[in-house]
Structure formats: C-alpha cells, structure tokens
Design goal:
The structure is a single chain. The strands form two sheets. This protein has a two-stranded parallel ribbon. A two-stranded parallel sheet has the order 3-4. It has helices spanning 10-15, 20-50, 56-82, 93-110, 120-144, 153-182, 218-244, 262-271, 273-302, 310-335, 337-340, 347-356, 360-395, 403-432, 443-453, 455-468, 475-506; strands at residues 4-5, 247-248, 258-259, 399-400. The protein has 507 residues and is mainly alpha-helical. 72% of the residues lie in helices and 2% in strands.
Length: 507
C-alpha cells in the first residue's frame, strides 16, 4: 500500500530513483480528470444547447462561471494545502482521496436532465461549478505531487511524460466514450441529407427537440449512460494512484525551515520572472486549445458539413496526440523545451485550410496535425513548471511549501483564461443568432464558428509563442540549477548530521 517517506535520510532520498511502476501508477491517477474534462470540453456546450435547450447566452454563463469557480478554487486550494500537516499517507494524497467521491457525484448530475425547465440554468450552473471546483481540489495536489516523487530532474521529466501520455490517453478515452455513446443524440432523421454548405433546399429548419417532460428521452438517456461510465473510471484511477505512489517529504528543506506564508509566497511567485513568462505564454496557448475543443463539434456539425463524422475526427485528434507524446519527450530532451514549442504552431495553417476549404479528407489530416500540436501544448508547460520551481527554490533556499502555490496559481490562470474564451465564444453564438436543434444555422453563426476554429486560436498561439521566446530558463541554466540544488542538499545533510552529533554529545 502507498505510504509516505518522510523520515528517509537525505542521502538515501538523493539516491532514490523512481521505478517505472510508480511512474505508471502516478500517470494513471491523473487520467480520470482528463477523461471527464475531455468529455465536458468537447460535448458540454452542444449538450447545453441542443439537449438541455438553454440559450447560448445562458450556456456562456454556465461555461464561464463554472471555469471561473474552478479558477477561484485554485488559490484557495493552494492556501489550505500549503497549511496541511504531514499524515501517514503524505500531505497531498489525503486531498486527492477526499474530493474524489464528491467529484463523481457532481459530474454525473452535471449531465442529468432535470424534470423542470425554468430552473435548468441554475441546475447546470450549480453542478458545473461544483465539478470544476472539485476537480481543482484534485488537480492541484496531484500535479504538485510531481515535486515529491523524486529529486532527480530526469525522473521528474520522465514521470511528467508518463503522466502526459496517460492524460492524453484519458482525453482520448473520454472523447471516444462520450462521442460513441452520445453520437445518436445528435443525428436527426431530417438532417441526413448532406448538401453543400451554401445550399439549403433539402434542409428543414424544424428543431428536433425532445419533449422536456420526457425524462427518459433517448438524448438524455445516452448522456447519463456516458456519465456513469466515466464516473467508474474515476474510481479505478484513484485506487491505482493510492496503491502505487509513495509521496516523499520535501528533500531540500532543513528541519528548521518554515513554510512560506501563502500571501507572501503568492507575491514572490508573481514576481518570479520565469514563472510570469511561462504562465502568460501558456495562458494564451491553452485558451486557443480550449476554443478548438469547445467549438470543434459545433463546427463539424453546422459549418463543415461533417455532422456524421465528428466523433471519428475527435478520436483522430486524440490518437495523434497520444502517440506523439513520447516523440515530443524525446524531442525536448535532445533539442530543448523551448525548441519543442514550435510544434504547437503546426496546427495553424491546416486549421485555416479546413475553415476555408471544408473537405472530409482534409478534415482528417487537420485532425491528425492538430493532435501533434495539442500533445506539445499539454506536455511542455507541465515539464517546464518543475524547472521554474527549482529556479525559485535556488533563490529562496530556506522556505518550503511553495510548490502548491506555483501549481495552484498556474491552474488558476489557465482555467480563468479558458473560461473567458469559452464564455465569449458562446456569447458570440448568441449574438449571431444560434438556434438549437435546427439543421442549418445562419451564415453569421457559420462565420463565427469558422473564426473560433481558425483565426482566433491562430492569433492566440502566435502571441503565446512570442512571449515564450523571452522565457529565460535554458538547458544550460537547468544543468547549473541541478548542480546547485545537489550542493544545497549535501550542505543540508551535513548541517543535519552536525546538529544530530551535537545533540548526542550534549546528552
């Protein structure tokens, strides 16, 4: 059973290497969050619009406020976790275990179609906010756990690569399960004709709306089945994480070191140059990826004439992302992490081509290339963040407990940016006259979807990469930091041994 290695001597911790089994178990533990997050990213907006039948404006409120609640929870979670005491199973693991049952319940209810109509907005807003807040309480300690698996940079990078591979695989599983189970909910008999984008003669604009009083309608039933399956994945992941991962206490700090007060630590974090540049860059990039995910199904359904292919295109994106994570890990090890960021831009020209020339073959090729870029955008920030924490540690050698501050504030900014992006996109659909359930949307709605898939993500990605050019941590500086931290650990060990010897002598 998993435990916590707190009293391990510093020399033994320094020599400890992370086993492949521990890396795999750690990676599996984070997959359920990605399974659920992927299903929500790709399908929640179209579910709210076409199944729950709430207006695009109200859908934008649900999406934005939900993401905002998760973002606000990040610093709060960071504050309380940083104050946590060490337990028999560690300092971070109890948080992961405690929030999982409530996360499962809130996720299932987020996809439930309530019997009332007037209060549906409040229903989905409540449970989406709960789900986002609870996933934050899971994600912050889980991601910060990277720093407590090993002191070796290669081990941490390797564990991060395992984690990203499994999380992208979880994203694939979530989108695939959800897509295959709920695909029939978005196929209307009167929308089976596939005319060209500019024709409407054989299309009927009569909405295919289920009776709101029919709680067991086919559309609602398949979404609840998908939610139940994904809820089961949560249980499996948390059991594997608990049994297979051992949390180790801060190996850098002296026993006399005190935790950095949260507000002071947050202020220091916001002044740390490498962290600010990394966060600003991937804030823009993650917003672009969220826009792609949140609007891709709508784009395929209403703007590209690919209504019957969207679930297979989503699977293509995610399979490409899964198989490319090991490639990006090798690439960044050989050429450096900043150089690997160029792969994020690969999706831009192909996405623009898909928007301007809707074509089935091109769509699959674009999906494949987009998967390569998404894999790079997922792996890089989580691989670079431990380097930033190490750099901060070197500049503040007598403080501890700052890891959760870095991770919680990073997740806060990315969630807030994603919420703003998804909220604006849904509000844009409301403004241009999106009508749920109809086969053919207006030209203004189609243009909006094209902008949300093509031009807007391209601009955000380019701005993010421009900021990343000024990120100061290079491969050379990483090696220097590693050597300096090893010297710091040796000096701490010598200090602890001296204090212990003096104590024994006095006795």
């Amino acid at each position: 059973m998993a435990g916590a290695a707190r009293d391990t001597p510093a020399g033994e911790q320094e020599g400890h290497r992370l086993s492949m089994c521990s890396k795999i178990c750690y990676a599996i533990g984070g997959a359920p969050n990605q399974v659920a997050g992927s299903a929500a990213s790709f399908f929640l907006q179209i579910y709210l619009l076409d199944i729950a039948h709430i207006t695009p404006f109200h859908a934008s409120l649900v999406l934005f406020i939900g993401k905002a609640s998760g973002a606000v929870t990040d610093p709060v979670a960071g504050f309380f976790i940083s104050k946590s005491r060490w337990t028999k199973i560690g300092r971070l693991m109890p948080w992961v275990l405690a929030c999982t049952p409530f996360t499962i319940i809130s996720y299932f209810l987020m996809w439930y179609l309530p019997p009332f109509v007037s209060g549906r907005v409040a229903w989905y807003l409540t449970f989406h906010c709960l789900f986002q807040a609870l996933t934050t309480l899971f994600q912050v300690p889980y991601s910060a756990l990277t720093m407590f698996l090993s002191t070796d940079q290669k081990d941490r990078d390797s564990a991060t690569a395992y984690r990203m591979t499994m999380e992208v695989l979880g994203t694939l599983i979530g989108a695939s399960l959800q897509g295959q189970i709920v695909a029939s909910a978005h196929v209307s008999p009167h929308c089976t004709v596939n005319p060209s984008v500019n024709t409407t003669d054989s299309w009927h604009d009569t909405p295919s709306i289920p009776d709101p009083s029919d709680l067991l309608s086919h559309q609602a039933k398949v979404y609840m089945i998908a939610a139940g399956v994904i809820a089961g994945v949560y249980l499996l992941g948390i059991v594997v994480l608990f049994l297979g991962v051992k949390e180790r206490d801060d190996p850098y700090a002296l026993n006399s070191d005190r935790a950095i007060p949260f507000c002071k630590g947050l202020a220091l974090t916001m002044k740390h140059g490498p962290y600010v540049k990394l966060t600003a860059s991937f804030l823009l990039i993650s917003t672009a990826v969220q826009l792609e995910q949140g609007n891709f199904v709508l784009f395929c359904t209403h703007a590209a004439g690919l209504r019957n292919h969207f679930q297979y295109l989503v699977v293509t994106i995610l399979v490409s992302a899964v198989v490319s994570v090991p490639f990006w890990q090798k690439f960044l090890q050989r050429f450096g992490k900043k150089c690997a960021a160029c792969g994020i831009s690969w999706m831009i020209p192909f996405a623009v081509m898909l928007v301007t020339i809707p074509n089935l073959i091109l769509a699959y090729f674009v999906a494949f290339v987009s998967g390569l870029s998404i894999a790079a955008s997922l792996l890089l920030p989580w691989s670079m963040l431990p380097d930033v924490v190490d750099n901060f540690r070197l500049q503040n050698p007598h403080g501890k407990g700052h890891e959760t501050i870095f991770y919680s504030s990073y997740v806060f900014f990315t969630k807030m940016s994603a919420g703003i992006g998804l909220g604006i996109s849904a509000a844009g659909l409301e403004f241009t006259g999106y009508k749920p359930g109809i086969c053919r949307q207006s030209d203004d709605v189609i243009l909006t979807l094209k902008l949300l898939i093509g031009a807007v993500p391209a601009i955000l990605i380019l701005l993010g990469l421009l900021i990343l050019l000024f990120y100061p941590i290079t491969e050379e500086s990483r090696k220097e930091t590693k050597l300096a931290l090893e010297e710091l650990r040796r000096s701490h060990q010598s200090t602890e041994n001296l204090d212990s010897h003096e104590k024994d002598t006095s006795v």
